[in-house]
Amino acid sequence: MPHTLKDKVAIVTGASRGIGAAIAERFAAEGAKVVLVARTGEPGGKLPGSLDETAARIRTTGGDCLCVQADLASAADRERIMGETLGHYGGIDILVNNAAWARFGAGYAQSPERVQLAYAVNLFAPHHLAQLAVPAMKARGGGWILNLSSATSTRPGPAPYDPKDRAYRFHTTHSPTLYGSTKAALERLSTGMAMELAADHIAVNTLAPVEAVASEGALVSGSIDDLAHMEPVEAMAEAALALCSRPQAALSGRVALSLPLLRELGLPVMRLDGAGPLPDFKL
Questions:
Q1: β strands within 81-214, DSSP E
Q2: What totals of helices (H) and strands (E) does the chain contain, helices first?
Q3: How large is the greatest C-alpha to C-alpha distance in the chain, in angstroms?
Q4: Who's near 68: CB < 8 A, 6+ residues apart?
Q5: 154: left (phi over 0), alpha (psi -120 to 50) or beta
Q6: How far apart are the C-alpha atoms of 135 and 139, rounded to whole Å?
Q7: What is the distance between the alpha carbons of residues 126 and 202, in angstroms, rounded to a whole number?
Q8: Does residue 261 contact residue 254 with C-beta atoms inside 8 Å?
Q9: In whole angstroms, what is the distance from residue 233 CA to residue 251 CA?
Q10: DSSP for residue 11
Q11: How many CB atoms lie within 10 A of CB 245?
Q12: Taking CA 125 as the corner, what is the angle to CA 217 and CA 150, rounded to the nearest 5 degrees?
């Protein structure tokens, strides 16, 4: 393995399962010291996956990681995440804001509590963690911030509406309006910060699957229909690696989709251990 991220320190939120766990494992395979962040510390939660299980897979293959159990909706917990990272590893080079909160349903009917929680986890937390990370990144000469987005950030078209249209059916059944609005805001925040931090050699990008990854959270959310284009979690991990290792001046300010980005860069989808291409998958 080339150890693209040797001696780099990376925080990955939502690392107990799904895309976050895959990114953490892929980064660790490339030599990164990974801080794993999630609410679920031990096995036995509502969904499969935990920080302990992700850490065990990383350590089994010789990787270095630190588990920080935290609630991303809490500002105090966000400050603690950064404090434990700096205390344990002495700095930070990469921040991957992957954790998200979603409840699908009509946007007009979402309770104030759900709206506040969605924006707290999906927008305010990435912004706050970036604020906390930037001074440490500047001290190390630069860094990478990657915010995970979603295809639901795309605005639906205007009337007249066709009830047979897929987007119409989605918005009138398992509507992504609230969740998609948080991701649209995150994309605008990210592209602006990319310009603001360019002179400091800090890249800021967003990354989303083309449509869907069959992660544990997505499968129970109701957000995947029978027409969804499915991609392996390894594709998101490989695209994340590219956005957190390439020269900052060349790859920043992107609102990227995983598979088109990998095709553009001429990169294969690798196994999470980096030992070879993912079998039976072609871009």
A1: 94-97, 143-148, 202-208
A2: 10, 7
A3: 57
A4: 35, 36, 37, 51, 80, 81, 84, 85
A5: beta
A6: 6
A7: 15
A8: yes
A9: 22
A10: E
A11: 19
A12: 45
The predicted pLDDT at position 46 comes to: 87
Alpha helices (runs of H) in 174-248, residue ranges in sequence order: 177-197, 216-221, 233-243
53: which residues sit within 8 A by CB, 6+ positions away? 16, 43
Q: Report pLDDT for 219.
A: 47
Closest CA to 35 of 132, 117, 141: 132
Looking at the DSSP assignment, which residues form a beta bridge with residue 277?
270
> Which residue ranges of the chain lie beneath pLDDT 50?
219
Residue 204 β-bridge partners: 145
Q: Which residue shows structure tokens 């990787």? A: 63
Count CB atoms within 10 A of the CB of residue 170: 19
Helix axes 258-265, 233-243, angle to 10 degrees: 60
How many alpha carbons fall within 13 Å on the CB side of residue 17?
20
* Burial category of 19 from C-beta neighbours within 10 Å (exposed 0-12, middle 13-18, buried 19 and up): buried
Q: What DSSP string runs through 77-97?
A: HHHHHHHHHHHHHS--SEEEE
Query: Phi then psi for 168, rounded to 5 degrees?
Result: -60, -45
Please report the pLDDT score of residue 181 as a whole number: 98
pLDDT at 224: 54
Token digits for 199? 């002179």
**How many residues does this entry show for the chain?**
283
62-94 as b/e, with b when 16 or more CB fall inside 10 Å? ebebbbbbbebbeeebbeebbebbbeebebbbb
Distances (CA, A) of 184 to 1, 41, 95, 149, 191: 36, 30, 19, 8, 11
